[in-house]
Amino acid sequence: MDGTSSTAPPAAPADPGAGPVDAVAATGVDRAFGGVQALRDASFAARPGEIHALAGENGAGKSTMIKVLCGLIRADRGTVEILGEPVGRLAGPAARQALGMATTFQELSLMPDLSVAENLLLQHPPRGRFGLVRRRQLVPTAHLLLERLGAEHIDPAATTGDLTVAQRQVVELVRVLATEPRVLILDEPTAALAEQQVAWLAGHMRRLRDAGCCVVFTSHRWREIEALADRVTVFRNGTRVDTRDRLSEAEAVRLMSGRILAGSYPTIAPVEQTDAALRVDGLSGPTLRDVSFELRRGEILGIGGLAGQGQRDLFLTLFGARRARAGSIEVAGRPARIRRPADAIRAGIGIAYVPEDRKAEGLLLPMSVRDNLTLATLERISTAGFVRRRAEREAVAAMVAQLSIRADRPATRPVGTLSGGNQQKVLMGRWLLTEADVLLLYDVTRGVDAATKHDLYALVARLAAAGKAVLLYSSETEEIAHLCHRVLVLREGRITAELPGPVGDAERIVAAAMKELVPHA
Ligand SMILES: Nc1ncnc2c1ncn2[C@@H]1O[C@H](COP(=O)(O)OP(=O)(O)OP(=O)(O)O)[C@@H](O)[C@H]1O
């Protein structure tokens, strides 16, 4: 869509179908989960030598289509062909992998207790004579692999569970890229990545495409689709709406949701209140160095910078999930001792943290949407230890409506059966229900569709206008540039610049992040 579409083979029909040129083709696929019809007469086709984006709202059926294509789940009806082979002959994922198909899913598949090297080489470990695995070769072999694919900054000896979500995603990607696939399918590969890592992945996707590989990916970031995709297929309500080689964002949103959005970002009301909701003085920790700032009521303060400069630690420390080595925190003018999350949530302090990793840090997947939403507010909706069901029902219904969470029967529906973006919204809803005064929003629009992002931006602006203090980090720097009254740039754990907002142009934040260290005023 950036003019590179000429590299995709021309002359094929625009509609999916069983054309011989297709590398993957699904036709007339139905798939239900219990009472939920995830796919309905859905078709999708992509060719060798093209990058094909699969776009759609949260819950539109993209992941389900990908799982059908790669053999992880079976279609109730319909046909699938991979590289010209009818899928009947390629029962499970292994047979498709043998043909050269590689897939990453939204759920990371790495084993957290194993090292990066073990995860990378699990399937094909280096072997010596007699076929014995050469354990001592694991780390050097993995290092070479990481280096070859431009990810040498990741330590192959590290325990995978100790890596950040972004680093784990890079390892997951290295694992599939290393197979030099003929069909590469990536379900939201960039949701966890920062800008530099996205550029790294884009390079690999283009390289594979140019070598004739069929690359399919999903994303909720239109900029990426525009820059990378030769064609886009839009899904809505479990079925294909259209396939195009050119599509504007506004048109895409209309096709995906039936909505016409007026501008992407809301206007931010000026900060009128002067009292500090949060004052941080000299905070230091393993990755933080002498961080001091004030966050006022009604203010949205952005934390910008390149990936991994201490942003996550700052949020976790303020929430009590990481210990600070030095420094102090004041909430509403009073010193606050926050040693664990329970201290942060306590009445009188009221700090809520909405994390990026909804699975590891947030949701209890087998529990219902209702119970996940009310987990942090049980006290407020209980009397003498009994949950007041009516109050609970009302609070849940209001939050489901406010965030457009797509979940029928929230009281019984396990949150793990919602689409990824809807899970993220449940997590956001949980903390909004606490009515905390200070909101630590860490990459909250990750994996959320365009129309809902728009709603979340408006919600954040409304919360601030109502006097909440918001600290905001996003792996999409553009969000920080447009949504914040002020932006602090972190570099190597230190605040190195302060930009008045809205900054508008994300490049200015990136430029400030790359500049030499300057003393913070
Ligand atoms: N295992 C499951 N059990 C029950 N329902 C499911 C299951 N997997 C998916 N669904 C439902 O199927 C529908 C389609 O989900 P899917 O994950 O394919 O959407 P998606 O387009 O990938 O969304 P997102 O952008 O949020 O990842 C959703 O309503 C979802 O709740």
From TrEMBL:
<keyword id="KW-0677">Repeat</keyword>
<keyword id="KW-0472">Membrane</keyword>
<dbReference type="GO" id="GO:0005524">
    <property type="term" value="F:ATP binding"/>
</dbReference>
<feature type="domain" description="ABC transporter">
    <location>
        <begin position="271"/>
        <end position="517"/>
    </location>
</feature>
<keyword id="KW-1278">Translocase</keyword>
<dbReference type="InterPro" id="IPR017871">
    <property type="entry name" value="ABC_transporter-like_CS"/>
</dbReference>
<keyword id="KW-0762">Sugar transport</keyword>
<dbReference type="InterPro" id="IPR003439">
    <property type="entry name" value="ABC_transporter-like_ATP-bd"/>
</dbReference>
<keyword id="KW-0813">Transport</keyword>
<keyword id="KW-0547">Nucleotide-binding</keyword>
<protein>
    <submittedName>
        <fullName>Sugar ABC transporter ATP-binding protein</fullName>
    </submittedName>
</protein>
<keyword id="KW-0067">ATP-binding</keyword>
<keyword id="KW-1003">Cell membrane</keyword>
<dbReference type="InterPro" id="IPR027417">
    <property type="entry name" value="P-loop_NTPase"/>
</dbReference>
<feature type="region of interest" description="Disordered">
    <location>
        <begin position="1"/>
        <end position="20"/>
    </location>
</feature>
<dbReference type="Pfam" id="PF00005">
    <property type="entry name" value="ABC_tran"/>
</dbReference>
<dbReference type="InterPro" id="IPR050107">
    <property type="entry name" value="ABC_carbohydrate_import_ATPase"/>
</dbReference>
<feature type="domain" description="ABC transporter">
    <location>
        <begin position="24"/>
        <end position="262"/>
    </location>
</feature>
<dbReference type="InterPro" id="IPR003593">
    <property type="entry name" value="AAA+_ATPase"/>
</dbReference>
